[in-house]
Write a sequence for this structure.
């Protein structure tokens, strides 16, 4: 049997892969750390496999670069971080199933409460005081305690004992600077209802995400949760890749803008097929694209099965030889066709950039976001089977390779230990 060592770095020979610049993660984390007051804790959001970047590597880099705590979306994600040896506080900022209460306690995670049912389950699962945080639903209408019910909810927790409220938080619903007024209303609602509960005075508060931290420094309170900004997604950036004007309305936003946020993820593939098409030839399922001229087509081994959502990538431009070329026809499960007619002759194995930089051109994730979406809806769906190639934030390649080897070995040891009964 052919045995391939884990250390073989198969991503170098992959036909489609993701590159993650951990130096950019470190830079972006440091930008927010420097812009925020020293008393404000920085919570790095690493849910959904680090927005598609790789949860474990991103978490370590963020903690080494100024983040104080981590935020995940599920018990499983928190357990995986613990299995990798991470001891920092981990908040599950979302709903937790009742059946998962024992796992929350076992792995030392902090659950966010939105129902008394979960509170009861956590109290049954723990033998000592367990820190929890309460989410207040100030406008998302999904998870959390209604502002009018907050006082009675807290009283019920105190009557039951065992659960210690270590924080109270809310989520802004805004996506851009045009939502500033609604974000301010949410913030006022949050502060008013929390101030009205005597036992919550002095308890940690946090409402700001990346957008909130830039627009509303007065709302940063005791902590901020930085997700998109840590990965280099700037909420000022529009779908055409340009920065919106009139956004830097605070000193904090200006400081972040001056330092610049660097996108950490690139998506690349090699050309695995080339063909000539005649006028009238149809491309892809349904024949939605009809060649209007003699056309040269390049085939990429990546499709919606790897995370290129058809609705978001239809007609997208990719980079070949440092120039833009359009995707044509319907994206298949594992194949995508690019029109390279206007480019110099392309060869098999040629590198194509679907997200990222080639030469002086850059394709932004924001270009692929839906009308009411954001850049990380594009990266978070990139499948784990796409190899990740990491560039560590070290000065030379020797240090980088040694660090990656150590981290890979540590990952294997911790995962093996977690699997051992």
């Amino acid at each position: 049997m052919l045995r391939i060592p884990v250390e073989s770095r198969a991503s170098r020979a992959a036909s489609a892969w993701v590159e993650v610049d951990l130096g950019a993660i470190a830079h972006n984390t440091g930008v927010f750390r420097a812009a925020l007051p020293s008393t404000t804790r920085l919570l790095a959001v690493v849910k959904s496999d680090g927005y598609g970047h790789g949860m474990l590597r991103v978490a370590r880099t963020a903690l080494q670069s100024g983040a104080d705590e981590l935020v995940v979306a599920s018990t499983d994600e928190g357990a995986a971080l613990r299995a990798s040896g991470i001891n920092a506080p981990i908040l599950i900022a979302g709903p937790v199933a009742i059946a998962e209460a024992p796992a929350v306690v076992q792995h030392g995670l902090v659950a966010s409460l939105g129902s008394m049912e979960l509170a009861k389950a956590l109290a049954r699962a723990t033998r000592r005081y367990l820190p929890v945080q309460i989410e207040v639903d100030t406008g998302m209408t999904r998870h959390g305690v209604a502002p009018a019910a907050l006082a009675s909810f807290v009283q019920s927790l105190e009557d039951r004992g065992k659960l210690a409220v270590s924080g109270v938080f809310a989520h802004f619903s805004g996506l851009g600077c045009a939502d500033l007024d609604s974000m301010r209303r949410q913030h006022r609602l949050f502060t008013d209802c929390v101030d009205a509960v005597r036992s919550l005075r002095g308890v940690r508060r946090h409402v700001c995400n990346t957008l909130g931290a830039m627009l509303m420094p007065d709302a940063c309170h005791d902590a901020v949760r930085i997700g998109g900004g840590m990965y280099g997604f700037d909420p000022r950036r529009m779908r055409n890749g340009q920065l919106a004007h009139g956004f830097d309305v605070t000193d904090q936003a200006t400081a972040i803008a001056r330092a610049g946020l660097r996108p950490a993820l690139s998506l690349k593939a090699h050309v695995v097929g080339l063909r000539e098409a005649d006028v009238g030839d149809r491309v892809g399922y349904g024949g939605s694209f009809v060649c209007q001229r003699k056309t040269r087509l390049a085939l990429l081994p990546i499709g919606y099965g790897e995370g290129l959502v058809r609705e978001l990538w239809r007609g997208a431009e990719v980079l070949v030889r440092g120039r833009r070329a359009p995707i044509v026809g319907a994206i298949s499960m594992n194949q995508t066709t690019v029109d390279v007619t206007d480019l110099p002759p392309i060869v098999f194995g040629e590198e194509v950039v679907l997200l990222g930089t080639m030469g002086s051109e850059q394709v932004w994730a924001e270009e692929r976001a839906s009308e009411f979406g954001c850049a990380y809806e594009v990266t978070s769906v990139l499948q784990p089977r796409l190899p990740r190639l990491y560039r560590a934030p070290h000065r030379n390649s020797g240090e980088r390779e040694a660090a990656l080897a150590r981290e890979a070995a540590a990952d294997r040891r911790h995962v093996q230990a977690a699997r051992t009964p």
In short: The chain has two domains: 22-262, 266-363. The chain has 13 helices and 20 strands.
